[in-house]
Structures are given as C-alpha cells and as structure tokens.
Amino acid sequence: MRHDATQLGRRLDRSRGAADTVPKSSPPNLGAVTVSLSVVSPAPRVGTETHCPYCALQCGMTLVERDEEWQVAPRNFPTNQGGLCRKGWTAAELLNSPERLTTPLIRRGPDAALAPASWAEAIDFVASSIRTLAQSYGPDAMAVFGGGGLTNEKAYMLGKFARLVLRTKNIDYNGRFCMASAAAASQRVFGIDRGLPFPLTDIPGADVVLMVGANPAETMPPLMQYFEAQRSRGGKLIVADPRRTPTAASADFHLQLTPGSDAALANGLLFIAARDKLIDEAYIAERTRGFELAKAAIASYWPDRVERITGVPAGTLQAAARLLGNAETAMIFTARGAEQQSHGVDNVMAFANLALALGLPGEKHSGFASFTGQGNGQGGREHGQKADQLPGYRKLSSAADRAHVAAVWGVEPDDLPGPGLPTMELFDTLGVRGGVRGLWVVGANPVVSAPRATALDEKLARLDLLVVSDAFLSETASVADVVFPTAQWAEEEGTMTNLEGRVLYRRAARPPPEAVLSDLEVMKRLAVALGRGQFVSDSPREVFDELRRASAGGKADYAGITYERIQRDQGVFWPCTSEAEADTPRLFGQRFSTADGRARFYAVQYRPPAEEPDDEFPFYLTTGRVTAHYQSGNQTRRVSSLAAAEPTAFVEIHPAMARDLGIEEGELVEVVTRRGRASCRARVTGTIRLDTLFMPFHFAGSGRANILTNDAVDPVSKIPEFKIAAARVERIAGR
Ligand code: SF4
Questions:
Q1: Burial of 167 (0-12, 13-18, 19+ CB in 10 A)
Q2: Measuring CA to CA, how many Å separate 512 from each of 2, 54, 489, 508, 517?
Q3: Under DSSP, is residue 336 helix (H, G, I), strand (E, B) or coil?
Q4: 375 CA from centroid of ligand 1 (Å)
C-alpha cells in the first residue's frame, strides 16, 4: 500500500492550486495558508499527538506550539499515513480565534441581547429554569440535542445526564441527520452497526469497489490513498452518484443515476448478477436467510426498466454487474447520497442484498460498509445519545439492557425513562402544548443543519428556554437564552471512534482559556445545581471507565479498552471484551451478529422520493459537502483560508439548463422549493445531470440550503430527505 498522497489528491491540487492531501514527507501547499513544515521543522518543540477535530477519518496530527501560536504538523498514524486535508492543516487556527466565546452569555428578556455573565449566574439561570419547567410541565418538557462530534465520554455522559439528572426521555442527536439509515440497515441485515466492519488497510486488496453516494475525494481526501492503492494494483472503481464528482470522475464506471433511484439501481445490479449466475449460492445457503424473498422482489428489475428509472444505460449496468460478480474480491460502500432519503434504509438494504448475494461480507478483502461522516459519528451513536438507546448499543426497550445499565449507574431500572422521540418528531413538539418547552443543544447547530430550517427557526422561538454549548456563537447559539462557552478539541482529553470502529485517544494540548469549561464540567455543575451531582463526573478518565462497564456485554463492547491500550496500539477496534482479549478489526469472519449468526436479506422495492419534479419545480435539488467546509460550517467558516476558498453558497446547474434559463456563471440566483427561497451564486458545470441542482449545506443566512430541503423522513431511521427536493431556479436580475 502506498504511504503518501494519492494521485487523485495531486490532480485535485493541480486543479485547485491548493493541497487536499499531502505526502507525509512534504510540506503542505495551502495557498493562502502559512502553515508549512518548513516553518515547523527547524527546531520543533515536542508536539502533542492528537487527531483532527473534524470528520470520521480522524486523521492523526501533531499540534505544535511556538510563541503561543499553534500549528499542525504531520503524524504518521495508521489511517491517514501523514496525510491531512486542508481542513485538518488549518484546524489550529481556531484555538486562538478572536471569535471564540470566552464567557457565558445570558439573554435576560425576549427583546434583550445576549450579555456576558458569570458561570454561577449562567448555571443558576439554567438550573432554576429547568426546575420551573419540570414543576409546571413534567421532566419530559426539557430535551437535549447532542452532536456526533462529541467524544465518547461526553456522548455517554450526556445520555446519562438526560435520563438521571433531567429525568427526561427526550434526548436525540444530529447523527439522526447523518448515519441513521446506515445504522438501522446494518442492525437489520448484520445484527450490528459498525460503519466499516474491516480496517481501511483491507481496501487495497479488493479487485472491485462500488461506492454509492460517496465522494471521499472531496470530503475525506486522505481516504483516497486506499482506493488509489486498490486501483494501482489493477482494481476497478465503480461510483454511483448523480454528480460527476472528483471521485466519480476518477472511476472506471460512473453510474450517474437519477436522484432517489438507488434501490432500483441496486435491484437492477442484483437482477443481472442472479440472471447471469454470478451469485454465490454456497455462501447464501450457509451464511444468510431470506434470499428467496429478495430474489422475488427483484424479479421486475430487468436492465431496460432500471435504465428508465435510474437513467443509467442498460449496457453500463450490465458491465458494472459483471465486473462485480466476476471479481474474486469486492467491496460495496454506501454513504449519505443513498442514505439521506425518505427510503434511505431500503436503499442501504438493497445494496447489502447485492453484497450478500455476491458472498462478500466477512470474506477477505471483501465486504459491505458505510462511510461515517461526523468526527465521532460512530462512537456518538453507540453510547446513549440516541432517543431509544443506552450505552454499548443497548436498548431502552429491553428489560435486560435497562437492568445492566441501571446497576452500573446505581439506580433501579424503573428510574430510567423509556425511549424518547427521534429528532424531527422531537422538534415538532418544541413549544407546543404538551411538548418540549426547554432544549439544551450540545455541540450541534440545527439552525443550519436541520431540514426545513425556517420552520425550525419558528419552533425554537416558541421555547421557554434554549441553551447552547459551543466554542463559537453559532447560528443556533445566537438565538439562545443562555450560551455556555466550551473547550475546543485540543483543550480536553477523550476518545473518539473512527469510521472503522477504531477507538482513538485525543490528547489535550493545552488547557482551555479562563472561564471556558469542558462539556463534562458544565454537566457536572448543572447536575450539582439540580441536586443530582452524584451521577456526573467531570473527569474523562472516570467517565470512560464507567462507559467500559456500562458497555460490557453490549454490542459495542468497550470493556477491554483503556487510554493506555489505545495509545500503545494506535487505536483499539471494538468489540473488545476484556483487557486480556484481542480487539476486533474484522467482523463477520465466522458469523454475523444476529441471533442465529446469519445475515438477513430484505425484500426491497424501489419507491420514488417524497417529492418529485413537476412543472412548477422541474429540478431535483440535492445537497452535500465541499472540501473546504465541515458540517454546518460553524468552525470552518471562521478559518481564513477555508472561508476564502469557499466564501458563500452556490448552486451547481448544467450549462444547457443555465442557457435555457438565461443564467450566467457567477450570477446571483434564487433556488426555490415548497419550503422557501435561498439565494446563491450559479456555478455552471457539466458535471451535474440536466435535471439536477446541487447546493452545499454549510452556509447560513440567505444561502442556507436547508431552507429548501424536505423534512419528510424515512419510516425506520427517521432520517430527513436532505438529498432530494423538487426545486426551480429564478434569476434575480431578470425580475
Ligand atoms: Fe482528515 Fe477529515 Fe480532518 Fe480532513 S477533515 S484532515 S479528512 S479527519
């Protein structure tokens, strides 16, 4: 395997004049960014080995301080091999940002501005408000909304805080917007949810890779080195995406499918594989159940029909299916493109059906996986932030699971509330009679990241109490009643679980500024003020040790993982049942995690998205990420070089459609859906389908893409349909 930047990364460098990945031995070329190895290297001080604050690749990096300025230097960690993308290279700029919050803020009246306050005032204000809400409306009137970037310790403690300190059932988190469909599908099919059930180092051994709705060349550039290594030994890459992204452009086959037609594509590929006798009958018989149901469900997905639904030529479908079916080793990956849909779970299960029929999961250099997006999107969904969940992937609806966790927490099982509401249902109750009256948002920015955003604006305004914990005054914090300033990633220790299920240790490089607390410290102070301080520790190590006990015996078992072991082994893969036992880089070698050890096929039918184009709204609008920004942009929009690279929202439109509408490159236009209007610059490009528009979702204000998105949800995962909305484009100049 190569240990340097990818060829694709270099192509991107040339095309953009800025490095997305760099070889570990070379100084990063960051254009306007001044960080470089030549600056760091003459007499380097001992750095702090840590990980990037952003995405789920959790690239290893070293933080180096010089004259109170912090810089990022490479670190030869097994996953990124020294490579970082431009977000990682510039992450340290935020540590001393003049924009960071350094004191609590309180709004002392509906029309008052947020004003500085002491911690004692802020904690007292929030604690007394929570008490009042509980007395007036009951404990469920207070809700918590967490984040997929929180450490395992914080995610765990937030779930415990909600259930034992607030005694509310209402906690959910922004992973509901991200990984929920992949998680639900994996639980159903394989009996467990770990994004990659194998390490990244297995990828180069795959003869054929199919990626569905994934664009790592832009979203996780260092990840591409594994696919470049796979290609360099003769492997083939197939990418299914409505956009000709840099990832798709580099592929051997680009299946440029109609947005929302993923299940039809998967069923069509399986139809061809079964028809051409490319499926693995022995594997199906020994390791799975339900194939006959799935086979019956795909009977009508002959190539011509699938071409009509997906727009992918029948010949291309057949070539892709045969490539996959004839491969000795193959992997199938899904990501948000297929998952953030009102049929996201079906889409993932349809591709899992294909993988099972080809006999891939659990086999060497083969398998089925989903790319996790947020920094701790994996660990954040394992330890109790989800509405229905207890630590270790235990369920609130299970008596045995409740008894185990209650014993660790020193309470009776009946002291634990039942399952709460998933995010969109929870948000629907904000400020309504019998619903949620107070909300604490921790490490999330739903004003930018939630669908149908203007409706959420109104719901948040109806609350009696909105509290936000953040390092910066995010768009959600700016409308809060109380803002808690919290530490950044380099100012506290903790663990993160990356997209492979590898638990990582994040060191503190320095303490937070005076009057800034960690999220655990805030939880502790609030718990003490509410008279239940005994349930909360503000020591990450103590919390992690408790998490280990609470997760022991669960599906996501961390019992054998310690901070020391993580550092010694450069990460530990869960499940890891004791300190004496090995960890588990690969799942499914002998059995799946279902009760009988067999994976399950599901009968999946293609169903159209909740909203399809019509005369009034003739385009599919899809949304996604750009290289320079991360999630709601609350951090990356404040980094000077990243803001300069992508300063504002834009909409991609095909040249032929732009010509028809009289739209020119760079022109200010409005994108309109049934939910509202957003204004942005037109980016005219032939990489997008004629019938499709694309907007990045990182921007606030009038360019907020989520003003436009549809809040229809998947019936199982409850993920909103971020990827498809019927839309039109209007010229502003022409009015
Ligand atoms: Fe790596 Fe992701 Fe950070 Fe980029 S944003 S450096 S890919 S962890």
A1: middle
A2: 38, 19, 10, 9, 7
A3: helix
A4: 9
Q: What are phi and psi of 595, to 5 degrees?
A: -60, -40
Model confidence over 531-543: pLDDT tens digits? 999 999 999 999 9
Task: Give, in order, the Cα–Cα distances in Å from 485 to each of 147, 171, 262.
Answer: 16, 21, 42
What pTM does this model have? 0.93
Q: Are 407 and 570 in contact (CB under 8 A)?
A: no
Give CA separation, 554 vs 318, 391, 547, 548, in Å.
42, 8, 11, 10
Amino acid letter, residue 575:
P
Strands of 47-178 (E only): list them. Answer: 48-51, 60-66, 69-74, 105-107, 114-116, 142-146, 171-173
Handedness of CA 425, 426, 429, 434 (dihedral sign): positive
- Going 370 to 371 to 373 to 375, the CA torsion angle's sign is positive
In 276-333, alpha helices (H): 281-287, 291-297, 303-310, 314-326
C-alpha–C-alpha distance, residues 130 and 122, integer Å: 12
pLDDT-wise least confident of 17-21, 60-64, 375-379, 694-698? 17-21
Bridge partner list, 696: 624
Q: How far is Cα 229 from Cα 366, in angstroms, rounded to an integer?
A: 15
> How is residue 473 written in tokens?
């005054």
CA 633 to chain centre: 14
- 448-483 pLDDT per residue, tens: 999 999 999 999 999 999 999 999 999 999 999 999
Q: Residue with the nearest Cα to atom 1 of ligand 1? A: 59
Q: Which helix (H) or strand (E) holds 390?
A: strand 389-390
What pLDDT is recorded for position 45?
53
Contact 148, 179 (CB under 8 A): yes
How many angstroms separate the CA atoms of 478 and 342, rounded? 31
Q: How far is the CA of 629 from the centre of ligand 1 (A)?
A: 10
- The residues facing 101 across adjacent strands are none
Flag whether pLDDT at 9 surpasses 70.
Answer: no
- Return d(Cα 116, Cα 125) in angstroms, integer: 13
Q: Which two tokens stand for residue 189?
A: 């099919």
Q: How far is the CA of 648 from the centre of ligand 1 (A)?
A: 21
Q: How far is the CA of 611 from the centre of ligand 1 (A)?
A: 33
Rounded-to-integer distance, Cα 157 and Cα 125, Å: 22
E-assigned strand segments in 587-731: 599-600, 619-624, 650-653, 668-673, 676-684, 692-696, 710-713, 720-721, 725-731
Given ligand 1 and candidates 50, 55, 80, which is best to mutate, with the most ligand atoms within 8 Å of its CB? 55
Please, what is the Cα angle at 621 between 478 and 680, to 5 degrees? 50
Cβ-proximal residues to 167 (8 Å cutoff; 6+ apart), any chain: 134, 139, 417
Q: Are 12 and 217 in contact (CB under 8 A)?
A: yes
Ligand 1 proximal residues by C-beta, below 6 Å: 52, 54-55, 57-59, 80, 84-85, 87-88, 220-222
Tokens 């490479």 belong to which residue?
A: 74
Which among 147, 55, 256, 180 has a CA at the least distance from the CA of 721? 180
First-residue to last-residue Cα distance in the chain: 56
489 Cα to the center of ligand 1, angstroms = 14
**Residue 14: partners with Cβ closer than 8 Å, 6 or more residues away:** none
Residue identifier of the C-alpha nearest atom 2 of ligand 1:
55
Return the SS3 of 303.
Answer: helix
Cα distance between residue 428 and residue 426, in whole Å: 5
Contacts with 422 (C-beta within 8 Å, 6 or more apart), sequence order: 172, 176, 180, 387, 388, 713, 718
